[in-house]
Amino acid sequence: TVQNRLIEVEKLSAIGMLVSGIAHELNNPLTSIIGYTDLLYGKASDDRDRKKLEKIASEAQRAVRIVKNLSTFARESKADKSLIDINDLLRQVLKFKGRDFVLSNIRIVEKFSPGSMHAMANPAQMEQVFLNIINNAEHALKLIHGEKVITLETVSKDDWIEVRVKDNGPGISEEHLKKIFFPFFTTKDVGRGTGLGLSICYGIVDEHRGKIYAESESGRGATFVVKLPARRESARDAKLEMGSERIESGVLSGKKILIVDDEQAVQELVSEFLSIHGIIVEEASNGVDALDKVKADDYDLIIADIKMPVLSGISLYNIVREQYPALMSRFIFITGDSVNEETNQFIHQSGRPFLLKPFSSDDLYRVVYSFFFRTQP
Ligand code: ADP
Hints:
By secondary structure, the protein is of the alpha/beta class. It is built from 13 helices and twelve strands. α1 crosses α6.
């Protein structure tokens, strides 16, 4: 049944998300363990010390393999995507919920954008996302008296498809608003809520390269917004298939990029990969270093890690906003921490593109390419 299928998808995405979260968190410390062990090994004069260091190195490598396997597993659990009409999908979800709405005395207002709203998405996962948001709205409306309304609105904006689900329930306090996408955050009674619904929605939408967030003023209802990259021409599918050949075409040749990351391994990796495409890459290891470079030179793009000693990516961006506002739109952020509240808020507020660690060379290229051409390669 549809219900069973939804439960199945929910389980899979929860595991996938958990696993990729763990992989993210372990990647940075492992890079350091291996790097520093290597450094010490070079200096060790005592054979017994060397043996111990070898042991640390081989154990760390074992952990790297485990993380790799976990990540592969998480990737494999990602479902296939196809070109779907989001308006159609929402109509299906509403049909599925029809009886519940009658029972709960909820009126549905549809404000669908005319025409089709195409996105590359996994239909079962997207159903899951909207069903979850709507179920939450339904639950919230149980807490109020008087007229109960859920409004579904779809809009097509620039390169995005936007779905807004609004209810006139009690709304979400500012304090809770920061936490609702965290795993296990719930205000529902034991046995009613798991606190996993929205974190799974977040995982699914993120995997679709989309955005999800909520807006609310206490007492004035809540609006959940899901944005997905729009798909207008299906010709782009063919381009995606071609992958690496296209990547060699050197369309980014001559662009000047500054990579700011305190992890040298990441710096070097980004440099190495981008220079293959003829991109000129310069490195900075913290925000202060980056500011000096930005003062002295003109960069087409600045890729900055968020968490750095001395001056973080966030502080760097804030200083640039004051002193060189023209450069604000040239930032892309990287982060190894997809669960951090401050980081997530900053990324949402700044609206800048971002990359999650560990990223593949393909992910990096895609983000850089779409920065310059405002479209996916
Ligand atoms: P659960 O539904 O199991 O609690 P979710 O992750 O789906 O888990 O939701 C987390 C919390 O977000 C809910 O417990 C509730 O406090 C809040 N929430 C979600 N949607 C709404 C809404 N439409 N109105 C008010 N609060 C909401």
